[in-house]
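Good morning,

Attaching, inline, the backbone tokens for the sequence recovery test we're adding to the shared suite. The designed sequence is right after.
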């Protein structure tokens, strides 16, 4: 049976005038889905880029944004039994989190331990998981390394800084010394920023690109991140010892 719900809708790609809050209904969850009542949903640069139509391989408008949420199970699909009604769960939704209710695949739900601050849990799902994937699973940051993080005041940048520091690394967010060489650089800007980041890498350093937010931050015209990403990865063909990686968080990854 359908129930009433509200959700944010990006009616067309572009500025904030294309955002609407609509009253709608949501049907019973499909066979392998769980219906969740949203308590908190995340908001980040990803949502902005989706509204602008700049996020890689995104859905076409109209769409409901919201990359992550924490909420309460209200109904199980016919094939779902992992969670009980009333359980608190977290999910990397990719879409649809900015709504009162969402039908989500059971396989992507994670139980939230009792007593957990739900706002903090919401921050962990996309931002801190991305930072963990960058610093631990991909770069394997270790004690004594020097790490350079672009956008260190942002959600992922701040999380990356904290995680790297806990690994014993020296973390920098800006570079004022002409010949400073960083072992690990995390760069969410893309385009020319990746070229600059590569230029200050240590001879055996590692540049990890994620996102492609330069145009969004500077108001530049839209550009595809495809060729900059190919260029980034093509640098691995060099024999100079530097390494590059493009990191993309996915809920299907074994390490997520």
């Amino acid at each position: 049976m359908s129930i009433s719900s509200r959700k944010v809708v990006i009616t067309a790609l572009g500025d904030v005038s294309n955002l609407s809050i609509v009253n709608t209904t949501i049907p019973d969850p499909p066979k392998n889905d769980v219906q969740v009542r949203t308590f908190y949903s995340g908001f980040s640069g990803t949502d902005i880029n989706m509204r602008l139509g700049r996020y890689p391989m995104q859905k076409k408008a109209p769409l409901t944004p919201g990359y992550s949420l924490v909420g309460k199970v209200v109904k199980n699909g016919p094939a779902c039994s992992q969670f009980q009604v009333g359980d608190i769960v977290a999910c990397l939704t990719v879409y649809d989190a900015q709504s009162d209710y969402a039908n989500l695949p059971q396989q992507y739900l994670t139980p939230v331990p009792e007593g957990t601050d739900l706002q903090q849990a919401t921050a962990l799902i996309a931002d801190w998981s991305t930072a963990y994937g960058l610093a631990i699973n991909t770069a394997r940051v270790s004690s004594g390394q020097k790490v350079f993080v672009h956008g260190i005041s942002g959600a992922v940048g701040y999380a990356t800084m904290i995680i790297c520091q806990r690994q014993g690394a020296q973390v920098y967010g800006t570079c004022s010394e002409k010949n400073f060489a960083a072992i690990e650089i995390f760069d969410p800007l893309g385009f020319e920023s990746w070229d600059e980041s590569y230029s200050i890498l240590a001879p055996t350093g590692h540049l990890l690109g994620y996102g492609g937010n330069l145009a969004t931050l500077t108001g530049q015209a839209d550009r595809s991140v495809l060729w900059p990403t190919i260029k980034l990865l093509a640098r691995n063909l060099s024999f100079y010892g530097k390494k590059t990686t493009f990191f993309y968080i996915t809920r299907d990854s074994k390490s997520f």
